[in-house]
């Protein structure tokens, strides 16, 4: 689903966020992306969502070379990627329903047509009955789940999550992770950037590790990586 | 339908949304309508700031359209004065009555000529004696110094400055004519004056239109920057620039619609205000001239210009600023 080939990213000013990163995430897989802050986790996700372009190397999604995607095509690419952010990125002046339905409106659904899908998505994240509320009336965990419902509402084949549990307590975090696991079980590819290593250790999924912009473990060798080992923290 | 799913079989549960082309087309218009109404709703939610911009747009257009009314009326007046153009032909004194009559007929039958009036030298002298005040002094003259005069009124098509002058030159060539005059200088001066006024009004109008575009553009720019986060989120979930731009373009459109109506009202009030003084001025010239305001066609043109300027201003703003907002 995602393939990085010798991808480097340098920001103006010379900061090298990623150095020759290569890995492959097959369709339908769930993987974690871990590393210290500033290791390049967010940059990697941003390259997948075309919020950044690589300085060198190629990123391929589903066989499409992202270097060949023009500016005008970016929106259509993003419609196939569900993105979840630490800060939720919800529209505060719109109801939960309208927030979740936003990708559908953009696709060309009317409100009544979007209803069934929005309800299904909210049901999935356990927020049935909150449609008419505004995000501000919800707790942090609930807001995060609204963000997840928005990401999955048009059933994208790929989900990206950047620190989705960053502001949540351990119990809620685990709930959110179980939610991602359930999407993975129905065939969605999921890539989660997180620094919650204890949680990663409990989940038993592939773990990609970045350190100073280099991928020091692509999680494929069995037993090659202990998320709680001192050297990675 | 997205880029990633083309020719790719998805596992259950991760199927792309499928929407046909016809649906997409239909929804484009439904979306447009929703966004048009939505942006009208946005205007009503911020009535004061919207009203300020709309008033600036409307009142800025009021000046050019009032000036247009003035120019239009002054053209009507000068067209009226054009009809006064007539050519005086001074004839040789040694002509026989028969020759005079023949010449008169010949001129009358010219296609450029509407009518001719013959003023014979005796009646001219009599009139001169009565109106000039020289009275008895003229009696000392041995002979009548005045020539016979043929006053030629050209047809309406030949009353313009250029054509009347051509006719004058043609008539001057006639054997019977000693000299001919066409009192056109004042007409030329008037027309030149009208042209100066027209041009400066047009320049002023253009400047005001540019100002309107800039003001609308700036308002829309602020609206875009106010909704920066929202635009970023919409881009993240796959909204095209076009989709994001449309509400702002519609805002500009509504500015034009309402601004145009304000321009109508303000122009009518202004025309009504000055028409009283114009009627008084016309009365002093023994004229029943009345100021005509904007007719239906003019109003439509003002409206179209207002909407065009609103759209242009918002288009400039969205072109520059919507594309510049990139999600972070």
Which oligomeric form is depicted?
A: heterodimer
Please estimate the helix content of chain B.
Answer: 55-70%
What structural category arises from helix and sheet content of chain A? alpha/beta
**Distance linking N and C termini of chain B:** 25 Å
Q: Any idea what the shape of chain B is?
A: elongated
What is the succession of H and E elements of chain A? EEEHEEHEHHHEHEHEE
Uncertain segments of chain A are none
Number of strands of chain B: 4
What is the rounded distance between the termini of chain A?
A: 29 Å
Order of helical and strand elements of chain B: HHEHEHHEHEHHHH
Identify low-pLDDT runs of chain B: 6-17
Defining key terms:
heterodimer, A: 233 residues, alpha/beta, 6-stranded mixed β-sheet, 4-stranded antiparallel β-sheet, 7 helices, 10 strands, globular, B: 328 residues, alpha+beta, Alpha-Beta Plaits, 2 domains, 10 helices, 4 strands, transmembrane (chain B), membrane (chain B), cell division (chain B), Cell division protein FtsX (chain B)
Textual characterization of the structure:
The complex is a heterodimer of chains A (233) and B (328). Chain A has 233 residues and is of the alpha/beta class. Chain A has a domain of 75 residues. Chain A is built from seven helices and ten strands. Chain A has a six-stranded mixed beta sheet with strand order 6-7-8-3-9-10, sandwiched between helices. The model of chain A has no long low-confidence stretch (mean pLDDT 88). By secondary structure, chain B is α+β, with helices and mostly antiparallel strands. Chain B folds into two domains: 180 residues, no CATH class; 97 residues, Alpha-Beta Plaits. Chain B is 68% helix and 7% strand. Chain B contains ten helices and four strands, in the order H-H-E-H-E-H-H-E-H-E-H-H-H-H. Chain B is elongated. At the A-B interface, helix 2 and helix 3 of A face helix 1 and helix 8 of B.
